[in-house]
Amino acid sequence: MVDDNTYIHCLPLLLEMIPGLRHAKIIKIKSGEEHKNINTCIQIWEELEKHHAERSSMLFNLGGGVICDMGGFVASTYKRGMSFIHLPTTLTAMADASIGGKTGVDLNNVKNEIGLFAFPKGIYVYHDFLKTLSERQLLSGFAEMLKHGLIADRDYWDKLTIGDDLENQNLEELINDSIRIKQSIVDDDPWDNGRRNILNFGHTVGHAIESYSLKYDKEPLLHGEAVAIGMVIESYLSHEMKKLSTHDLHLITAEIYSHFNPYPIEIDMLPEIIELMSHDKKNKHNLLKFVLLNRIGEAEWNTTCDEKLIWTAFEYYIHLQHQSI
Amino acid sequence: MVDDNTYIHCLPLLLEMIPGLRHAKIIKIKSGEEHKNINTCIQIWEELEKHHAERSSMLFNLGGGVICDMGGFVASTYKRGMSFIHLPTTLTAMADASIGGKTGVDLNNVKNEIGLFAFPKGIYVYHDFLKTLSERQLLSGFAEMLKHGLIADRDYWDKLTIGDDLENQNLEELINDSIRIKQSIVDDDPWDNGRRNILNFGHTVGHAIESYSLKYDKEPLLHGEAVAIGMVIESYLSHEMKKLSTHDLHLITAEIYSHFNPYPIEIDMLPEIIELMSHDKKNKHNLLKFVLLNRIGEAEWNTTCDEKLIWTAFEYYIHLQHQSI
User: Fold this and answer.
1) Which of A31, A218, A279, B194 is surrounded by the most beta carbons within 10 Å?
2) Which residue from A56, A104, A278 is facing B284, i.e. has the nearest CB?
């Protein structure tokens, strides 16, 4: 399974590396988060059927987070489960999305509303695919790597933020670190009933902004770009509700601002964004729950914030846009 | 979750028995196998979202096989898995469909093409619901109970076939026997990689006939009615390919004919029915595989039959319609 982009840029590389795949049937879908929905799943299920895929067949997901999330879901629900392998092609997918067994698609702009836990038979990371990515795509993945440092590993955060140019860093080593951190959190709590929640840092706000952008923007935010905004806003909440120091808050804000352009959030967008947040899977009994930081490298899950404080946190982000930091 | 029928006939009974459920939100879908598809799932997922169902919510599936199969699928893929409980209301669902963790929906007339293994938190069998069923619905369930005898328990088959009137039998005891037989087969092989396959007796042919009927008939066959036809045809194959005696073949044929009206299969329908059989999930490498009987009470899975013999077996069924047995 490929999308328009990986069909052109990655499939030829893959077939060169693994000639045995040359006779595989190709299922091609449209690129982009806006196609990560159940209608695309129906198209893929129908193509699997057309190609006479069986329970004993194998689906190779060649692509970014969308392809891995959706391919895992489609495979594990086709004839009650065929096997699949992830071949992540983006930095986001290599360092984050392909790890941990979460699969799913969006429903009416609510992110990952339909899905399940299903583990691939294998995940193969070919760093050569990174050369096919734009700077913007690399940065989107970098946001999730920053997150891994923020929630679980101060040393890794320092390593990530020591240089100011992503391209000068040893990405292969950093990807391995991210995989190690994420896998260790997943191993502690594979079904997401406890500590695994900390991986959601930046995502309660980030998912809502991503959904909003997907609905209204001609060129929607990438996932990591939305998460980067979410991490700034949730770091502000961490400063107010938890022990995150002013110094750490400014460090995080400055680091993210040095990589990501500000997104033009206006006050009158907040009611809709906050409504979107209430659909987050982590919310119990319709309270808004957040993962917050005690310091860089240590997170806590399951903190309730009242709506007034959430507004203030968005205002913090909005005001940043009008000053240089 | 209810359908048009269980909303009227079973929900009032249930709320009388379990008053605690009176404040539950109701999701109602249209009755019938023709609505067991991904579009109905989308409707249910959207209603769950509308009612702010959370991962910690519980879906009660009040209905027959369609409601149990589809409800289990929808619940276990909503927000990566909410819990569900089966409240089977038909004989088919009580004695067979609700047991064993298979969930799923049809795709383009291919039965259960999309689904997964997911186990309910509980299954509660209230025999009072049986009084809401027509004779035809009871018989459809009886077909699966006959199957349990044929594949695994000669004594149970004898018990089932000793009377000639279903209503005079102790159904509650027979249901318990069927649940015990099915559960023991499922426990041996929960993920359907081996012996569990024997539960598919009658279904390779039965599913194809059911799909065909769903596509062309104004009043389609019930699942058990199609399986009953499948069991006659696959018993003929068992006689030709395995050790099933002529005596046992005639016993099975006569028992099924005494309960079920003949279905008007014509020779020119066979190419399409056989094509539908090739979509069966149990087929590897596009060969047609069958579960066949060595005798009443003992089945073998994974026998390949060639297409010519399959035609002859259908002809056996067709000729039966033109004679009294």
Assistant:
1) A279
2) A56
Among the partner residues B45, B113, B283, nearest to A107 by beta-carbon distance: B45
Q: Structure tokens of A10?
A: 């990655």
Confidence at residue B284, expressed as pLDDT on a 0 to 100 scale: 57
The pLDDT value given to residue A168: 61
Q: How many residues does chain A have?
A: 325
**Ordered alpha helix ranges (H), B242-293:** 246-259, 270-277
Average pLDDT of the residues in A68-84: 97
Amino acid letter for position A9: H
Q: What is the mean pLDDT of residues A29-45?
A: 95
Q: Do A281 and B42 touch (CB under 8 A)?
A: no
Domain boundaries, given as residue ranges, for chain B: 2-132, 180-324
B55 vs A: CB within 8 A: yes
Question: B162 Cβ partners below 8 Å, 6+ apart?
Answer: none
The radius of gyration of chain A from alpha carbons, rounded to an integer in Å, stands at: 19
A88 three-class SS = strand
DSSP codes joined into one string, A209-231: HHHHHHHH-SSPPPHHHHHHHHH
Q: Mean per-residue pLDDT for A283-292?
A: 77
What are the pLDDT digits (tens) for A118-163? 999 999 999 999 999 999 999 999 999 999 999 999 999 999 998 7
Q: What secondary structure does DSSP assign to B43-77, as a single string? A: HHHHHHHHTT--TT-EEEEEESHHHHHHHHHHHHH
| Mean pLDDT computed over A249-268 | 95
Q: Give the ipTM.
A: 0.86
- Report yes or no: B284 at the A interface, CB cutoff 8 Å: yes
pLDDT at A73 over 90: yes
A192 Cα to chain B: minimum distance (Å): 10
With an 8 Å Cβ cutoff, are B117 and A281 in contact?
A: no
Whole-angstrom CA distances from A65 to A31, A85, A87, A92, A145 are: 11, 13, 10, 7, 14
A45 in B contact zone (CB under 8 Å): yes
Angle between helices B135-152 and B223-241 (to 10 degrees): 30
Q: Which residue has the tokens 């999701």?
A: B27
What letter represents residue B53's amino acid?
A: A
Question: Which option is the CATH number for B180-324: 1.10.10.250, 1.20.1090.10, 1.10.8.50, 1.10.3470.10?
Answer: 1.20.1090.10
Closest-CA distance of chain B to residue A101, Å: 11
Enter the CATH code of domain B2-132: 3.40.50.1970
Q: Are B259 and B310 in contact (CB under 8 A)?
A: no
